[in-house]
Amino acid sequence: MTKDFKRILVTGALGQIGSELTAELRDRYGRDNVIASDIKTVKDSTVMEGGPWTLLDVTDADAVEKTVIELDIDAVFHMAAILSATGEQNPQLCWKVNMDGTINVLEAARKHEISRVIIPSSIAAFGPETPRKDTPQETVLRPKTMYGVTKVSGELVCDYYVRKYGLDVRGLRYPGIISSETLPGGGTTDYAVDIYYKAVQEGRYTCFVREDTMLPMMYMPDCIKATLDLAEADFGSLVHHSDFNVGALSVTAGDIAGSIRKHIPGFSVDYEPDYRQAIADTWPMSVDDSAAREEWGWKPEWDLDSMTADMLEKLRDKFL
Ligand code: NAD
Ligand code: SER
């Protein structure tokens, strides 16, 4: 493990992953060394109040460069993005934020010799022609959503900067992330979070994908662990850079409901698939993450039932 960066910028820090990543980075690297940023503000935000904060629109190249210079940044965790469902509602915005944002971060990093850049990809990089079970690391990448198009393009341009400029860029293809701190920001896998909230708040849920829809998922503590394990791995041990498959759980919507029913026996779920079903049907059911396991020691710690118990406990503390 290396910890050779000192001043960290997190973009999209008020989002589902950015908010918890910022907290962990501040614990590890020191409160004042982790600058949180986002295009929006949130009232009573622990991210904004728990350490340095700045407004930053990642589509503004000058603002990204100025932030990196003025705050003396030497590592960027680039979490700002438009996710799959919102991306299908506004594909042009999705392209602009995801691609301009990525290239602006890469360019600022190249010009100012930033020592490490973390840029996530997603299971959305895959498409209907990809094998859906144990989806290989190297396989067909022909996504059908604009979000997926930006994720494949992002992986390719990140790897280009590694090859062409020797920039240290790393990234993971996150599965659907489940968490209780910050609500997800408009993805296809949001049902896997919403179902826990509704179980605690209302005892019933209307799910926007079919009961048998199986997708790879991951609990937030494993997501943060994966991100930081990769970020802190020895560069020399990496063969891949921007596109690591990472697996944890492969569960159906019905499996999640069943796991919740072990704690809330009367919990009921209706299934009313909408446009997001068609997106989910093009994504993997499970992924082969042996490259991540071999190159930087990836190993998830949470299974479905341990995650469910923890989610319900945290949400009950929050709402009841
Ligand atoms: P999110 O939608 O919860 O948060 C994204 C944040 O980016 C938001 O706070 C938003 O305000 C901000 N943002 C949007 N446009 C911006 C702009 N122009 N400039 C600056 N900030 C802007 O997303 P997340 O779930 O935290 O995702 C973080 C990263 O992980 C993204 O790259 C996403 O594609 C990837 N990812 C997430 C998941 C998941 O399930 N959460 C799965 C796969 C990949
Ligand atoms: N959770 C994300 C989404 O559904 C996957 O990248 O968009």
Structural topology:
Layout lengths: L7 E4 L4 H14 L4 E5 L7 H4 L3 E3 L5 H10 L4 E4 L5 H6 L1 H21 L4 E3 L2 E2 L23 H20 L3 E2 L1 E3 L1 E3 L12 H11 L2 E4 L6 E6 H12 L12 E2 L3 E4 H9 L6 E4 L3 H6 L9 H7 L7 H16 L1
Parallel strand pairs: 1-2, 1-4, 2-3, 4-5, 5-7, 6-8, 8-12, 9-11, 10-14
Antiparallel strand pairs: 11-13
Helix pairs in contact: 1-8, 3-5, 5-6, 7-9, 7-12, 9-12
Your description of this structure?
The protein has 320 residues and is α/β, with parallel strands linked by helices. The protein folds into two domains: 8-175 and 219-245, 3-Layer(aba) Sandwich (Rossmann fold), CATH 3.40.50.720; 177-217 and 249-287 and 302-319, UDP-galactose 4-epimerase, domain 1. 42% of the residues lie in helices and 15% in strands. The protein contains twelve helices and 14 strands. A six-stranded parallel β-sheet has the order 3-2-1-4-5-7, sandwiched between helices. Strands 6-8-12 form a three-stranded parallel β-sheet. Strands 9-11-13 form a three-stranded mixed β-sheet. Helix 1 (16-29) packs across helix 8 (220-231). It binds nicotinamide-adenine-dinucleotide (NAD) and serine.
Based on the coordinates given, report the CATH architecture of the largest domain: 3-Layer(aba) Sandwich
- Briefly note the structural class of the backbone: alpha/beta
Instruction: Indicate the CATH topology of the largest domain.
Output: Rossmann fold
Bound molecules: nicotinamide-adenine-dinucleotide, serine
Tally of DSSP helical segments: 12
Q: Identify the CATH class of the largest domain.
A: Alpha Beta
Spatial strand arrangement across the major sheet: 3-2-1-4-5-7
Major β-sheet, in short? 6 strands, parallel
* Low-confidence residue ranges: none
Number of domains: 2
> Radius of gyration, rounded?
19 Å
> Termini separation (Å)?
41 Å
Q: How much helix is in the residues? A: 40-55%
CATH superfamily of the largest domain: NAD(P)-binding Rossmann-like Domain
| Average pLDDT | 97
Helix-strand topology string: EHEHEHEHHEEHEEEHEEHEEHEHHH
